[in-house]
Every structure is written in structure tokens, then in C-alpha cells.
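Incident review: delayed structure delivery

Summary: a single-chain prediction request sat in the queue longer than the usual turnaround. Root cause was a stuck worker, restarted by the on-call engineer. No data loss occurred. The affected request and its eventual output are reproduced below so the record is complete for anyone auditing the incident later.

Affected input:
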Amino acid sequence: MSEKSVGERRSRVSGVAWFVGRALRDEWHAIVTDPVRQLVRRGPSALTLACVAAFGVIFFHSLAQHPTGAVVVRRLGGVTADLPLWLALLRSPVSLYVPALDLPVWAGITQLFLAFALAELTLGRFRTLVVAYVTTLAGTLTVRVMIALGPGWWGLGLPPEAGQVLDTGPSAAVVGLFTYLSVVRRAPVVFVLTGGSMVWESIAVPNLAGREHLIAVAAAIVLGLLHGREFPVAAGNAAVR
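Output delivered after worker restart:
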């Protein structure tokens, strides 16, 4: 191999390494450095929403450890597709704090706190709540459509018994927040770790939770792409004012 070919190959490798390093640096600043600066500037009160979310999950998990408490938790925040729609919508806000009992709760709380903390510092409390609730609700409502379609439909439909399975709880909100942040902050590594892991989960363990997580990812992508856009109606109203 000639010295010229070796030099060109080294140049290409160096170029790729420089590009990857710069992308990782920019993503680190967008996802970690900027939120930490916000935390230093605003103080611990900037994590109010994240602390409330973590405390809510701890509270409901502790309550569900007792038979009577488990019944109370299910009636307050247990959402299934066979519930009347009005009741499911009424329970949906509480379901954000009701973890799945078959999953390690402390690992889930860590992910929940991190997702809400980064989102709260980056997006603000109101938008964080909107993204968390919309992505969770998207999965809840879409499952109803899948059950209405019935088995078949190229694998999209679900059997009626799926309507008795509990909703994913806070995990859909966590997935939605991480995905939304990765889109609006242009963080491909976080996006792959979030969306890619959900795709792998749905393939490896094809269950209702996997579908709801994928729907949460899709909803978060749409919301992220619409982030900061001004629509014609809103622009017209602003011009009138």
C-alpha cells in the first residue's frame, strides 16, 4: 500500500473521529451541561417537579405493598383499555405515578427522576407535564384502537383480553420525555438509546407495554418536530394583536 493511500485513510479516519467527537461534545453540552447550569442558577427549586414525581412513585409503590393499599392504588391510578373512556381519562394523571409491580422500582425511580429533572431544567415545568401526559395518553388511547381492530391487521390489532392489562404507568412518560429531549436538543445518542431500546424491547418481548412505549416514542417525535414552530393561525392571531 502506497504512502499516499495510507495518508488518505488516516485522513478519513481522523475526519470521522473528529466528527463523532464533536457530535458527542455538543450532545453532552445540550443534555447535561446546560441543565446543570440551569440548576446552579435556579437552585434546588428547579427540581420540584422531578422530586414530586419520584415521591409520588415511592408513595404509591409503598401503598401497593399492602392488600388494601393495592386496591386503592388500582382504583385511583390503574388504567386498562376495558375501562369506560371517561374513567380511564380520570385515572390517567394518577397513573403517571403508579409503577408496574413486576419491575425493579428503584431503577425505575432513578430513570423517572432523571427524565423529569432534565426536562424540567430544559423545557420548564408546564411543557414537561404536557409532554409526559400526552405521550402517556397517546399509548392509552391507541391501545383502545388496536383492541377495536381485533387480532390480525398485519399485527396491529390486539385480542380483547389485552384490555385487562394495566397501563405502563410512568415508564411511557419517561420514554416520551427522553425522546422529546433528544429531538429538540439534537441528541442522536440519547435518541438511539431511547427509541432504539424500545424497538428492541417490542421485538424481543412483544407485549402491550412494548407497544405503548413505541407509541410514546412516536408521539414524542411528533411533538419534538413541532417544537418552536409557529402555525399560520397562531401567526395571524399574533399579527392582529
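Verification: Residues 3-42 form the longest helix (40 residues).
Action items: add queue-age alerting; document worker restart procedure.
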